[in-house]
Structure formats: structure tokens, C-alpha cells
Design brief:
39% of the residues lie in helices and 17% in strands. The chain has 11 helices and 12 strands. Helix 3 runs parallel beside helix 4 and helix 7 crosses helix 8. The structure holds ligand PBG. Ligand PBG binds next to helix 6.
């Protein structure tokens, strides 16, 4: 049977019919809000390339977290900007490091708000790479020890989920072991499994003060041209104990999200990264696009591709927009 008996337009004729047959529903339940935290007091430092996003001192982080909680957003993803940096990123795993202090302050205030931490050394190393350098390259296996320590220190301070983002081989296994040996076997790992070496991270590196001082990250992050390799990365992370697997960035990698979801059926997170956010903001500020409509279309497409968890700088706005309709 075909036209004229079949007419797909029948189910598009009005809003309520469209509501009934809508396949993808964006929800506040899907969102994780990334936040940047810095030492000091009363700091709310705007990031020029990411309008609406700030570096917060801990006091202001707590105030901002209240908004996040009041909007019903289930989780935040924390990034820290340390006071000091060195060759190996020591400030990432100090007892009173920026993230450890932020978690200890935030957790008692909002015990139900999930605190996810980005576990990586790039914000903490003087050279801006994701691990110590040996003979001009990031040493994979030395990095594992350091990030396992970092993850443990986050969880010890009260983090609910750890998210290793350095793309070191074996990073999920190293963290799983360290957590299990210290009786944190109940803490999930959200692995940045298929993380691409992407120019879409540009604005983030201003926000986190973490650009590599030489070279780039193509020796450890994935090549944008590859898709089968993403499945291998995800498969290994699952074998190493990842509970949630991530694809990052989101928008140029929707095909990867779909393949990962279809292949593994695991909870999939996607990171709608800084450059994706900045492009929308810049065009909207010029009056060239409708920010709300474009942002919601983007977030819906990320979910439609197979994502369960969307990490996005639009989380607060999108939560408000969802409440309006
Ligand atoms: C690494 C990390 C990065 C992002 C999240 N975790 C940057 C990088 O790998 O260079 C990027 C997030 C974004 O662009 O929004 N710690």
C-alpha cells in the first residue's frame, strides 16, 4: 500500500497529534551540568567564549549549585583550576586540592545532587598534557597510577561518580582496582571511552586553563576519521569495568553514539562540548539563529542518536525551557 492511501502528513497536522507520536522526549532527567571551580572567594569569572558559563570560587559554586538543584537537574560534572601546576600534576590528587575541597563543601549542602568529577591531569600539569611526559610523549602507564590516585581522592572527598577523560589505555581498569581496593566498589565509572582529538574543545581550554603547551593530543585522543576504533575503545572500557560509556564531542559524532548504543546497549553519555555551545551562543548573539530552538533541536538530536545522559552547558537553560512547555 502506498499513496494515496498512505499519507504521513495525517500524523503531523496539529500539535497534539505530534505529541502522541513523538519518539524522542528530552527531559531534565537527561542532563549533567559542567561547572568550573577555582580557589578564592566571591569569584564568578565569566568565560568570554562561553557566555553564561563561569569559573566559580567554592562559595559561589554552592550558590550556583542551588539553582541547579532547584531546576531539578540530577548531576554536575566538576572541573578544577588549581593554584599550582607541575610536571606530573600533583595538585590533582592533593587532599586539599581544588576539587577535593569543592566536593567536601558541596556534598553536605546538596547530598542528593550527584557529583561527577572529571579525572584528568591536563588542568594540573605545567605542560597541559594529560599525564607526565617521557621522551616527548605522555607516559601511559605512569599516568595510570596518578589518575587512580586522583579518582580515589575525589571519591574519598564524596564524589558520586568518576569520569576519566585522559584516553590512557587501561585507565578504567586502574581506577576500578584502586576504588575496589579501598572499599569504593559501589562507585560507578563514567568512561570518556570514545573521546576524539577535537577542535571543538577550544573554549573549554580557556575555561579550564588547560591547553597543551606544546604539540596536541592526537597521540592519545581519537582520530576524527575513525568509527570502528570507537567500538574497540568502548568494548575495552566495558571489559575494564566502565558503567557508563561516553562519546565526545556529541554533534559531529552522532553516528558514533548510534553505533555504540546499538552494539553494546550500555548507558551512553554524550558531551555537548564547549565549541558546540560557543557556536550557538555566537550566532544567537548576532541574531542569526533562534538560540532556544536551535539548542533544543541539538539536544533532541543527541538523544535521538541513542544518548541516555547529555552533558551540556545548556542544561540550566534547557531545564527552564522544558518547564515552560
Ligand atoms: C580533559 C577534558 C577536556 C574536556 C573535558 N575534559 C579537554 C581536552 O581534552 O582537551 C572538553 C570539554 C569541552 O570542550 O566542553 N580534562
Amino acid at each position: 500500500m502506498t499513496f494515496p492511501t498512505i499519507r504521513l502528513r495525517r500524523l503531523r497536522r496539529n500539535k497534539n497529534i505530534r505529541r502522541l507520536v513523538r519518539e524522542t522526549q528530552l527531559s531534565i532527567d537527561d542532563f549533567v551540568y559542567p561547572m568550573f571551580v577555582i580557589f578564592g572567594e566571591q569569584i564568578k569569572h565569566p568565560i568570554p567564549s562561553m557566555p553564561g558559563i563561569y569559573q566559580f570560587s567554592i562559595d559561589n559554586l554552592i550558590a550556583e549549585a542551588k539553582e541547579v538543584v532547584d531546576l531539578g537537574i540530577p548531576a554536575v560534572l566538576l572541573f578544577g583550576i588549581p593554584e599550582t601546576k607541575d610536571e606530573i600534576g600533583t595538585s590533582a590528587f592533593e587532599e586539599y586540592g581544588i576539587i577535593q575541597k569543592a566536593i567536601s563543601a558541596l556534598k553536605p549542602k546538596y547530598p542528593e545532587l550527584l557529583i561527577i568529577t572529571d579525572v584528568c591531569l591536563c588542568e594540573y600539569t605545567s605542560h597541559g598534557h594529560c599525564g607526565p611526559i617521557e621522551e616527548g610523549e605522555v607516559s601511559n602507564d605512569r599516568t595510570l597510577e596518578l589518575i587512580a590516585k586522583t579518582a580515589l581522592s575525589h571519591v574519598g572527598a564524596g564524589a558520586d561518580i568518576v569520569a576519566p577523560s585522559g584516553m590512557m589505555d587501561g585507565q578504567v581498569q586502574a581506577i576500578r582496582r584502586e576504588l575496589d581496593e579501598n572499599s569504593f566498589e559501589h562507585i560507578p565509572i563514567m568512561a570518556y571511552s570514545a573521546k576524539y582529538a577535537s577542535s571543538f574543545y577550544g573554549p573549554f581550554r580557556d575555561a579550564a586553563e588547560s591547553p597543551p603547551q606544546f604539540g596536541d593530543r592526537r597521540g592519545y585522543q581519537m582520530d576524527a576519521s575513525n568509527s570502528d576504533e570507537a567500538l574497540r575503545e568502548v568494548s575495552l572500557d566495558i571489559q575494564e569495568g566502565a558503567d557508563i560509556v561516553m562519546v565526545k564531542p556529541a554533534l559531529s559524532y552522532l553516528d558514533i553514539i548510534r553505533r555504540v548504543k546499538d552494539e553494546f546497549g550500555y548507558p551512553v553519555a554524550a558531551y555537548n562540548v564547549s565549541g558546540e555551545y560557543a557556536m550557538v551562543k555566537a550566532a544567537a548573539q548576532n541574531g542569526w539563529i533562534d538560540e532556544q530552538k536551535i539548542a533544543m533541536e541539538i539536544l533532541t538530536s543527541i538523544k535521538r542518536a541513542g544518548t541516555d545522559i547529555i552533558i551540556t552547558y545548556f542544561a540550566k537553560d534547557a531545564a527552564r525551557w522544558l518547564k515552560e512547555v
